[in-house]
């Protein structure tokens, strides 16, 4: 019986987290109350206080359990680190954008991060959240270095500057798409968008199309 009670408590806690994600992404963090979250989760206000002492605590719990984007898309990748590094980089960027465009939970999380949150000292910082869930730029750096060493990317290439450009491109792209996802089809246009940003790297050859685009 105790085990069932513990399982039920964990289930309720997760229901509250999922309800908070939905409410925060729609209403905004500041405009969402604990009562809103409890109502959306179908539990009493007392039940939410059993698990969380404040809205900031449930906000932090959301990000504590969130996996990095590279882990979320891992099973959807066809290439490995032993393949052409430029093709690997291209595929990872494309699959990541397409995952964001199709996964409602991931989209809601990014909506909170980019548009629906005013941070305070009790909340996990925006920088920490971005470092936790975003692209792994150490992996990107390693792929660029490998591409240079294999002569796939034309030297000279300032990798630090390139990483800044990548970060600005993807952050701006996702932020603008979230403002109005009807402006363009992120899933279908992801390959072309990635190819355009890669074209700024002085690539010695254009990588082949390696990821099919849904019609």
The H/E string reads: HHHHHHHHHHH
Mean pLDDT: 88
Strand content: under 5%
Uncertain runs? none
What overall form do the CA principal axes indicate? elongated
Describe this structure in words.
The protein has 215 residues and is mainly alpha-helical. The protein has helices spanning 2-27, 34-41, 45-51, 55-64, 69-72, 85-102, 104-115, 126-133, 137-149, 159-179, 186-198. Helix 7 packs across helix 10. Residues 10-70 form the HTH tetR-type domain. InterPro entries: DNA-bd_HTH_TetR-type_CS (IPR023772), Homeodomain-like_sf (IPR009057), HTH-type_Tx_Regulator (IPR050624), HTH_TetR (IPR001647), Tet_transcr_reg_TetR-rel_C_sf (IPR036271), Tscrpt_reg_MAATS_C (IPR013572). GO terms for molecular function: DNA binding; DNA-binding transcription factor activity. This is AcrEF/envCD operon transcriptional regulator.
What does the secondary structure layout of this molecule look like, with pairings?
Elements: H1 2-27, H2 34-41, H3 45-51, H4 55-64, H5 69-72, H6 85-102, H7 104-115, H8 126-133, H9 137-149, H10 159-179, H11 186-198
Helix pairs in contact: 1-2, 1-4, 1-7, 6-9, 6-11, 7-10
In short:
The chain is mainly α and 215 residues long.
Defining key terms:
repressor, Tscrpt_reg_MAATS_C, AcrEF/envCD operon transcriptional regulator, transcription, 215 residues
